[in-house]
Structures are given as structure tokens and as C-alpha cells.
Amino acid sequence: MAHRGEVKVVVRTVVPLPEKEEKELKETLRDILGKDKTILVEQKIDQSIMGGLVIEFGQKVFDMSIRTRAKQMEAFLRQPFDI
Questions:
Q1: Radius of gyration of the chain (CA)
Q2: Where is the signal peptide, in residue numbers (predicted)?
Q3: 27 phi and psi angles, rounded to 5 deg
Q4: Are strands 38-45 and 6-13 parallel, antiparallel or unpaired?
């Protein structure tokens, strides 16, 4: 795949991405990874992320899920604060 300029991207969402959003995602990834790349998207449905999306390619993971945001907020709120 690499020698053909193809990049496999796994996208996890709660519901399938509409065609228009998948196309916009491919264009954004092409801007990031290089215009000469062909982006191959594999969609996976994952109810556990609660919303948002998780994008994985190569060794990189971009986690923009509601589950992760909620965990971050909980950790922040549990920190002691000084008055």
C-alpha cells in the first residue's frame, strides 16, 4: 500500500459517516498527509465512544470521542483546587 501512496485510515463512530462527511474527512487527511496520497477509509461502528470519532492511521490515533472528553473533564474536576 505504501509504495502505491495509499494510506489506510480506520474511523470509529457511533453511526456511519454520511458520504459527504467521509469525503470531507478524506480531503482533510490528504491535506495533512500529502496531496499525492490516496486515503482508504474503513469505517467501524463503536457505540462505546458515545459520540464524536476516533481516527487511526499508522501509529497515530486522534481521539475526539465524547467518552474521552468526559474522562478528561472528570479528571479535571477531581483535581484539588486552591482558593
A1: 16
A2: none
A3: -65, -40
A4: parallel
User: Cell 496520497 maps to which residue?
Assistant: 37
Pairing, β 52-57 against β 60-65: antiparallel
C-alpha cell at 12: 470509529
Contact 13, 56 (CB under 8 A): no
Other Cβ atoms closer than 10 A to 24:
12
Rounded Cα–Cα distance for residues 65 and 13 (Å): 8
How many CB atoms are located within 10 Å of the residue 80 CB?
4
CA distance linking residue 47 with residue 43, whole number of Å: 13
20-62 confidence digits (pLDDT tens): 999 999 999 999 889 999 999 999 999 999 999 999 998 999 9
